[in-house]
Each structure stands twice: as structure tokens, then as C-alpha cells.
Amino acid sequence: MSPHAPDPGSITRVAGIEVGHYTDSRRPTGCSVVIAREGAVAGVDVRGAAPGTRETDLLDPCNLVDKVHAIMLSGGSAWGLEAATGAVRWLEEQGVGLDIGVGRLPLVPSAVLFDLMVGDMRVRPDAAAGHAACAAASLADPLEGNVGAGAGASVGKMFGMARAMKGGIGSASVTVDGVTVGALIACNAVGDVLDPDTARPVAGARTADGRRLADTRRALLRGELAQSLLAGTNTTIGVVATDATINKAQAHRLAVAAHDGLARSINPVHTQLDGDTLFTLGTGKAGKNPGMLLLCAMAAEATARATLRAVRAARGITTAEGLHLPAMTDLDQGQ
Questions:
Q1: What are the start-end ranges of the H helices in 112-242?
Q2: Which of 144, 156, 243, 259 sits between 20 and 30 A of 236, alpha carbons compared?
């Protein structure tokens, strides 16, 4: 961030929220955890057609459990769901969880993204990775780009991996009248990432020569054929947190609204090839609720900004297998 750029904030600006990453050095993959040690009211909205999730049913406003203690975001597709087991173990070691009389039961919903085409797919986050992410968690602004769940993320895959670019993980927050809403987004979309203020693509599918952005939306509408892709090999996942006082129904509504932020910053989004899933957490630390209209607007804004930051912070990579994924900063934006 330049000295004159506005402070983008981060999800850890929300009181009661910590974030930790684990990045696997053997290949680009990893996991990221958002921790609420004192518990937080939670919601979820699964909008993509190919999700990989764990413990989302308990977040239904009709169901019993009122609070959760962490959310795990992971690479590794279905194998990455194991990272949440490590988070449960770490939280139990810290004495964090639902009091069940004979001990404490940590509740850790989770979602995964598919990064198995980037490097050796046999390397993926496991319970030890989830435990390590929790051990690294802090109140500091989280690292962004090629770390944690964003380590193996890529974007713009509509015309094949050879024309894709590097995705990543990003965070942002918005504060109005003493209430903060923040987002942590791991962007691995099949679509392009847009600047939400201009609707201009800034990362995504490249032209055949690889030097400029193809603009997936316009390419599809003029008849360029998408490459046949395996469903679920993409996905943008994230967490939106607020210190406002909310109930479970309101937490769900915030998750719904946060997807509006994805729609402003990714095109196409919520496809049959994506498992787009957003969780919400309410710590209640602000002690007030400024109204759902404002909170929903803030959730969408923080999500859109965090998605853009995910690709702005990303750095280009070339895997041992020869896959080259340039970053937004590598590309000629003068299209």
C-alpha cells in the first residue's frame, strides 16, 4: 500500500476475530482459519453449484447451535476438509468450544476450493495444516496473495489453464459509526476478477498470445467457446465478520448480501463450475446493530474489495510441471 492510498482495513479489524494461514512449501496450497475464541453467531450462503463444505447445516437459523468458534478455508478440494479437524483439535487444546459438561466441543464449519491442477495434487492440506494455521493466528492484518487458502488459487480458467492467471487471498473492511464489517476472500474463480468501482476486468482469462486480458464475459457473448472444464474445479470461498450484534437469521442474510460483492468483482460468478460459499460471523463486540440495510451494504462492499485485493496481492508462479500463472501485476493492462 502506498503512503497515500486509503487503508483497506482487514477482517481482523473486527473485534474478536483472529486469522492464521498455513502455506505448504512443497507446492502452492494451504489453508486459512478465522477464529472467534469467544464464539460468534454464524451464517452461510452456498451459491455455487459445486461446493465442498463441512458443518454448514448447523448454521441454519432453524437449527440449535447458536455460535461457532472458527471457520476453516482450505485448498485441496475434498481432501482439504480434513484441515478443519486440526482446527478442532487446536481449539480444544486452548479450552475453546461449546460447553458440553464433560469438556468443550469446538465448532468449525469449513469450505474448500479446488487447486489440484497447480503443482503436485498429492500434496494437500490435512489436519496438521489446520492445526498449524490456528497456531499462527493473530489479531494482526493477515497476509494476502499467495498464502494460506490462496496459495494455489487461480482465476480466469474459462478457456483453459494455459490462459489462466494467479488468484490468491485478500482482506478488507469497512467501518461506519463504530461498527465494522470485514471480509477474507480466497479467490479461485473460473471467471475474471473485476475492479468493483469500474467493472473493468483486472485479472482473468488471457488472450491466445497470453499478453492481455480476453474479457471472458465479452468473449463468451461473441461466441468464443469455453473449454470443457470439470465441474467444481474452481470456487471462491470466504468469511465476512462483523462486530455488530446479530442473530442467526441476520447472519444468514449478511451471507446472502455478501455474495452481491462477489457478483460485483467476479464475472461470471456462481457457475456450475464453482462452489462459491461465504460464511458470516457476528462477534457482537460493538454492542449495537445499525440496521440490516447498512450491514448488508457493508458486507457486499467488504467482500468486493477483498476479492480485488486477492488478485492485487497475488504473485505469478511457474510450477515444476511447467504451468505458468502470471499475476495481475505482470500483465499489460492497456487493453
A1: 127-135, 216-221
A2: 243
In three-state secondary structure terms, 184 is strand
pTM (global) more than 0.90 = yes
Q: What whole-number distance in Å separates Cα of residue 143 and Cα of residue 157?
A: 25
160: left (phi over 0), alpha (psi -120 to 50) or beta: left
CATH of domain 11-330: 3.60.70.12
Q: For residue range 65-78, list pLDDT tens digits in order.
A: 889 999 999 999 99
DSSP 57-103: GGGSTTSS--EEEEEEEESSGGGGGGHHHHHHHHHHHTT-SEE-SSS
Give the containing element (helix H, strand E) for 317. Answer: strand 317-318
Helices (H), 176-329: 216-221, 248-265, 292-312
CA-to-CA dists, residue 91 to 50, 70, 87, 325, angstroms: 29, 9, 6, 36
Q: How far is residue 186's CA from residue 112's CA, in Å, rounded to a whole number?
A: 10
- Residues whose CB is less than 8 angstroms from the CB of residue 131 and which lie 6 or more positions away in sequence, other chains included: 86, 87, 89, 90
